[in-house]
Amino acid sequence: MKLRSIFLLFLCVLIYTSVSAQDLSEQIRFNLEQAPEEGKLNLSGVPIQKTGETFRFYADRNFTPVWSENGLLNELAYEMRFEIRQAKYDGLNPEAYHLGIIETFFEAFESNQKSGVSNSLTDLAELELFLSDAYFLLASHLDRGKVDPSRLKVSWDIPRKPQTANYADLLNESIQSQSIREGLEKLYPEYPAYRKGREVIRELEEKAKGDDLNWKPLKTDKSIKVGESNSQIPTVRERLGFWGYLGENMELESRDYDSLLFESVKNYQLAKGLEADGILGKLTLSALNESPVDLMQKAAINLERLRWIPNSFFQSDLILINIPNFRLDYRSPTDTIFSTRVIVGTYKNQSPVFTAAMRYIVFSPYWNIPPSIARNEVIPAIRRNSDYLSRNHMEVVTGSGTVVPNSQINWAQRPFPYLIRQKPGTFNSLGLVKFMFPNRYNVYLHDTPGKHLFDREVRTFSHGCIRMQDPFQFAQILLDDMEEWTSENIEEAMNQGKEQIVNLQKNIPVLIVYLTFWADTNGQPHFRPDIYNRDEELRSLLNF
User: Which residues are within 8 A (CB) of 26 and not within 5 positions of it... i.e. 6 or more apart?
Assistant: First the structure.
């Protein structure tokens, strides 16, 4: 009996090792050579997305297999499958990396091993190519994003991050070190917000497992204030409790908006970047409508946006403006030097996403009224009221800046041959200073006389330019390396009644982005309203 058992064990070993490395290499080569000159190789009806890259990788290693040894899956194969599964925390769909067919092969191979049946040469070769293709595809998506931002309907005018590594070399390094994770992590964006964002998705996934709430949207015709009663208050309590913002032993079924609930709402609003006024208005209810799954998708969308941005932006001083956050941050590679509220474009006149270099400051600026505003707003107002120009401190000038007397102007002339500008002063629509980073959108940063608008929760009031709350302090920081520009001299230049241009000692990159989610260095998530409705297009392109 003992000899028989030994014989059967020996026979099983022979069966398992019946697939030689040479035979498998030949099968891999044969499969790859079936690829059309133009297009993708299909295996079992599934296209190999990175056919060319996969072919070159195997050709360079004489078609030696990576993911199996002696006809059996190795540890690296299991790690690769694990990394495909983990792609969901990068906001990517694991099914985009052949997970379904890979899982089928793994199950079959494991069943074969239990039954003492050898894995077929054809199956081993196909799984080999699916795993390698998955690696190259996942690597490229982690490195530069899955979606090409040039495909978006609304322009993302920031140069896409260049490829940071040769993926075949990276895979070979991973084979040597026996660590797929170590290699893939090298492709992550080089700023903490990305890794922290992955952890937020992981935490939300755990939260979603215990979610038994009905996320039917909360709606109201008017804001709900403390002291009022409303049928939706129990649902508000339920959702605040779900997210951990409701105090202990609070009544869940009450329809009354009491003082205890008021404090919970304010804490929730603070966490969401909303005005902490305790009023249940449109934005607060909209935030309360977002389930863990909704927030996971929102985070995923913005991790994709982060993958597009070149690492170089975060390796030097940077002026970062996030449109949905209504905020400007002047950052060094290690710290935030300055932060202030901003006002951005309306939905009709959206502030664009782009990058340019800040080069100079204009103190006591003229406002050269854009032709579209002059044509559609200013000239019709002048034709209705002849005092409009003087009352608004405006004048008409030629292209060279010569003032044109009113008596010489034909306001009905088309096209209008002159420029209209507003004189410097506290009344000027640009305020007392503007900060210039020349670009094709004619967008710039500037002061504003409308300071009260910075207290608003949603600050979408401009024609596309960015208005800032603390321009004097910003000017001080930008001119800190120029001794002649003391606080007193800056104050004087801002109130002198004539333009003065000051070139900066160094150009500073300005990055205007659109992020509705990010995680800070402490891992705290920050979600913002999608003010321009740009998330949905990217959601569809990511194929959640």
Answer: 63
Who wins on pLDDT, 94 or 252?
94
Tens of pLDDT, residue by residue over 34-93, are: 999 888 999 999 999 999 999 999 999 999 999 999 999 999 999 999 999 999 999 999
Interatomic CA distance for residues 294 and 287, integer angstroms: 10
Measured CA to CA, the distance from residue 335 to residue 213 in angstroms comes to 40
CA distances from residue 61 to 30, 122, 171, 506 in whole angstroms, order as listed: 15, 19, 12, 49
Q: Which amino acid belongs to residue 197?
A: G
Amino acid at 257: Y
Could you give the angle at the alpha carbon of 140 between the alpha carbons of 296 and 320, nearest 5°? 60
Question: How confident is the model over 220-257, as pLDDT tens digits?
Answer: 889 999 999 999 999 999 999 999 998 777 778 899 99
User: What is d(CA 321, CA 515) in angstroms, rounded to the nearest whole number?
Assistant: 10
Mean pLDDT, range 323-345, rounded to an integer: 95
| Element (DSSP H or E) covering residue 137 | helix 121-144
Of 54, 529, 101, the closest CA to residue 289 belongs to 529
Query: Cα torsion at 530, 533, 534, 540 (round to 10°)?
Result: 110
Peptide bond into 415 cis (omega under 30): yes
CA 406 → CA 96, 375, 409, 450, distances in Å? Answer: 66, 17, 5, 29
Tell me the C-alpha distance between 441 and 497, whole Å: 27
What is the rounded (10 degree) CA torsion for 272, 276, 277, 282? Answer: -10
- The rounded distance, in Å, linking the Cα atoms of 431 and 351 is 19
Tokens coding 502? 């000051």
Q: Which residues are catalytic?
A: 446, 465
Residue 109 · residue 72 · CB < 8 Å: yes
Helix spans in 360-420 (H): 371-373, 379-384, 388-391
Q: Which amino acid makes up residue 249?
A: N
